[in-house]
């Protein structure tokens, strides 16, 4: 009985303790917590309701119904489109027929290259639109109608592509970089109507509109909400000024007024008085202004741009000095101490090679000559961009010395004794100059001395050059010119073409160009020198029933590349992508895809540098040739003297050829000294992409150089044959073995 009563007492006591502890955990001091509206009663008791289970990730297997046909997923051209990204800023400039060729041109020259997209809107256009300006004419000069049509046009064509829309007049100067920086600090989730807020005449004291002369910023969300009400605003709101009309429309239908400050960002403006000298304006309000209005003429616009560029440049220089001072102060606290400060401060340290093969060589130059020439010659004349670069560096060096030693000394250059430069990919172009200077003191004494200076032209902001969109689905039209000397190599070319394009169903076609000598052309009825090639083509067409290989016969003594392309160009559509090949070329799919990607219509042409194998008799001298795939580019060189291969669009060739025809008139003999490369180089504004192409490998052959071609083309052909014999080491070994054989 005693044990039973003791056990019951302890069990009851333990139950009360555990119950009290549970209440202490669930109940907290303070007012009771009520569940949110619509929440289940379990939530009030601290228990998870239905649908609040812990999330457990699971793998959903891919399943495709075998009974349904497979449908290829069409992807967008750009990932930006697929993810729904928008461009940041669109700029519209309101102009007129009277100021299109004056103020609008000044705006275009000062700010157009800073904004990603800029359009000009006018009522009536002049007979000639200035070059480089995208103009939209609405056909009516009434200001309200121009604003209405402009807003409709922006919404219809760009409303879904941009986050911000900046509208300004052509008599407004805008600091483009400051406007771009402003929109990066604003949230796109709000309806923004930002500008210089002005009161309506005789209107509500609370309502404000944005003055059009100082520009104003609209968000995409506001534009989308405003568009359905534009027709009502045009019919119901009467106003003389277009900016007042737009402001009244936004206020009446959206209830949004113009503000000059938003999200901590201020829209600073400056009203320009008459006969103002921008160079003498030192007010803080002027220097902080995003826009200046009114600008009466083009000269004043350029003067304002020059002054604001100087102000911005001074700010950048001051910021650089502050950052350099901070770097020095912080570097002193590092383990390396002050010795860890690189020169110039803030620029990457020079590249440190890990072996002798990584050493960056210096190029020696003087004021007249360069001793490291692009063509490999030991000495060449300093000209073009290199001469301008050297002159600018010397001038900058003397200027820096005067800035450092004035007013005690004044330096003037007498002569450049020695000059060295090299390009360091980690920091930029480095220069070392030995200058012969004349130093003059304040008292008039002068002395000639030599001084060595080091300079660095650092790499600036890296920019990605926008390129038009291209695909690998474009059909390539191969053009193969053939002469009698090429007959031994045609069979191998056709076999490689059939194996790498016809068997793989690549989107490529072939056109043969038979070049007959006048003597062979007269006997073509009895003996056709290209009969064997035509038989091979017939066999290919029988083997591949869907393939047709046309040929064109040409009679000429001098097979000019330009004249041959003139014939081929007329027989194909303008959107044809040509690949001008040689009979030694081994076609493969990898190169054809690069031909498609590197050739852009109305933008870029591609001239690949093929890999030429050396003469096996000199390289291997009876030994077994290398068969490893990793060594196929070892015993040869990239033939930079050959321009036989080219990828270009027919439309680009026709445009360049038209300019050439206007230049040479009826002097067709000039074409014999030109190649297709020269046509594009001198008579087109396209990019010429010249790069080594490992996908184009040609076997060694001694090519016949036509002496009737121009001296330059003939010399280039001879050099290609000579450099294609073997490398220097192979030639030296062959000469050594020959001398050994002669001596014995």
Automatic annotation (TrEMBL):
It is found in: Golgi apparatus, Golgi stack membrane. The keyword Translocase does not apply. It holds the Pfam family CHGN. It is a single-pass type II membrane protein. Residues 1-22 form the signal peptide. Its EC number is 2.4.1.-. Transmembrane segments: none annotated. Keywords: Glycoprotein, Golgi apparatus, Membrane, Signal, Signal-anchor, Transferase, Transmembrane, Transmembrane helix. The keyword Membrane applies. Belongs to the chondroitin N-acetylgalactosaminyltransferase family. This is Hexosyltransferase. It comes from Bombycilla garrulus.
